[in-house]
């Protein structure tokens, strides 16, 4: 969406202060642990763009709060699995041999949006070690949230999502739907612990040397399956909705949402 289009659909300039007021009205409180997913364009014309959104979140949470965002870089993966778009099989070995190694300080996000990309480089933020499915956090609990991130199980036990669940975090959707709610992959892990495995690989720095590391991960669900789960959770009174700028926000506790997802999928689970 062009900036002119953004301006035309915005009644009043959206500012860091106005977003902070909207976040407080939605129910976000100082000192919380929250994972945020966002679409900057959904908010209307924001004075300061992604930086203003991050400042609003940090101002609302205060110094005792911890902000987490997904900072995924799915391009650091085995080209044999690429489908959007695929690359010729004759390229695969070259790609594996030359792809830059994951560096939590410099590897850009991909498909996460402008807010997450800006937050990735925020002073003091800590990023987890998974090359494709990392999370970034800032605040007193940032080190605890990002400390462990198993290569073979990026959304299950031993992941930032598991730590967020253990610490009773809340989930904030800023202008996005539940299809963007990464936390529901944690419920997916619990519902289908025996999903088919996919062979993967990524370039990592090990003992100071770049290496292509092969591993296997469980095949993820299509995130479109998360949409009816979220809708029924809100209908059941799990979470709150409200305006954020020119868009809408959703704030929901992670534990009740995960429990609700497991109930929704109870007839399909593998035990």
From TrEMBL:
One of the record's GO molecular function terms: aminoglycoside 3-N-acetyltransferase activity
Classification via Pfam families: Antibiotic_NAT
One GO BP annotation of this record: response to antibiotic
Reactions that this protein is recorded to catalyse: a 2-deoxystreptamine antibiotic + acetyl-CoA = an N(3)-acetyl-2-deoxystreptamine antibiotic + CoA + H(+)
EC number: 2.3.1.-
Name assigned to this protein: Aminoglycoside N(3)-acetyltransferase
Similarity comment: Belongs to the antibiotic N-acetyltransferase family.
Keyword line: Acyltransferase, Antibiotic resistance, Transferase
């Amino acid at each position: 969406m062009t900036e002119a289009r953004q301006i035309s659909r915005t009644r009043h300039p959206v500012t860091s202060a106005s977003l902070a007021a909207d976040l407080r009205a939605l129910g976000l409180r100082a000192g919380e642990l929250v994972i945020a997913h966002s679409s900057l364009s959904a908010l209307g014309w924001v004075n300061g763009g992604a930086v203003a959104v991050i400042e609003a979140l940090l101002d609302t949470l205060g110094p005792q709060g911890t902000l987490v965002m997904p900072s995924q870089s799915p391009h650091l993966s085995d080209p044999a699995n690429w489908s959007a778009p695929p690359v010729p099989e004759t390229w695969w070995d070259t790609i594996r041999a030359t792809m830059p190694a994951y560096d939590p300080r410099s590897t850009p996000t991909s498909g996460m949006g402008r807010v997450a990309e800006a937050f990735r480089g925020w002073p003091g933020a800590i990023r987890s070690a998974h090359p494709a499915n990392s999370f970034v956090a800032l605040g007193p609990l940032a080190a605890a949230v990002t400390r462990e991130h198993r290569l073979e199980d990026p959304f299950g036990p031993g992941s930032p999502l598991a730590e967020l669940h253990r610490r009773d975090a809340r989930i904030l959707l800023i202008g996005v739907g539940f299809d963007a709610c990464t936390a529901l992959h944690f419920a997916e892990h619990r519902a289908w612990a025996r999903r088919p495995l996919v062979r993967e690989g990524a370039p990592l720095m090990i003992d100071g040397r770049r290496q292509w590391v092969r591993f296997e991960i469980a095949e993820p669900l299509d995130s479109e399956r998360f949409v009816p789960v979220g809708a029924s959770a809100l209908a059941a009174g799990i979470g709150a909705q409200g305006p954020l700028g020119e868009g809408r926000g959703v704030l929901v506790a992670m534990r009740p949402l995960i429990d609700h997802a497991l109930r929704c999928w109870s007839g399909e689970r593998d035990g």
